[in-house]
Amino acid sequence: QVQLQESGPGLMKPSETLSLACTVSGGSISPYFWSWIRQPPGKGLEFIGYIFYSGSTNYNPSLQSRVTISIDTAKNQVSLKLSSVTAADTAVYFCARTSGHYFDSWGQGTLVTVSS
Amino acid sequence: EIVMTQSPTTLSVSPGERATLSCRASQSVNSNLAWYQQKPGQAPRLLIHGASTRATGIPARFSGSGSGTEFTLTISSLQSEDFAVYYCQQYNYWPSYTFGQGTKLEIK
Predict the structure, then answer these.
(1) What is the rounded distance in angstroms from the CA atom of residue A90 to the CA atom of residue A110?
(2) Rounded to an integer, what distance in angstroms lies between the CA atom of residue A77 and that of residue A54?
(3) Among A109, A105, A82, which residue's Cα sits nearest to residue A94?
(4) A46–chain B Cβ distance below 8 A for any pair
(5) Which chain A residues are Cβ-neighbours of B102 within 8 angstroms?
(6) Distance from first CA to last CA of chain A, Å, rounded?
């Protein structure tokens, strides 16, 4: 069974660039899409963007100017970069395998707090 | 953007009873709707896709119905482990996936 594990810094300062990695194990990174989704504390889910195993991407228009998602098939790893973070970017960030446009496997999530 | 509205915000039901959760889309999403369950401190878990198809390993007490703009998740006989927050998600207008705000199912 596929497993996903997010990793990255838990605390950041405003204006910095958030960098997270998602390592996929127990399954192939192809032929799936891989998504990032976030959840502010006590709130609902927001789709950030996805990447296909071939490298094509799509992003939420509300975040598009600040988001970059990349993939390293050799390392079975998907990465997220979010630039110019503010307190509004404080959230648990999940990576998820995307099959048929729904999210069928999720990582446990990693909390990122943006504070000066 | 397609807005997904879930009702009620909180639902109180006794164990063993039936729970019915609703999700409404601001435009038709055909049958391109998924349901997820999220427990505190955990990631969401896929329950239903295609509005009515149970995901692998999901018990038969979970069922989904609806199409177009109105959808329902029914849990036929609530078990203690079913008390959680439930989210719907449309994927008809991919890649602009959107989620509902969630329904908290609590023990009565």
Answers:
(1) 11
(2) 13
(3) A109
(4) yes
(5) 44
(6) 40
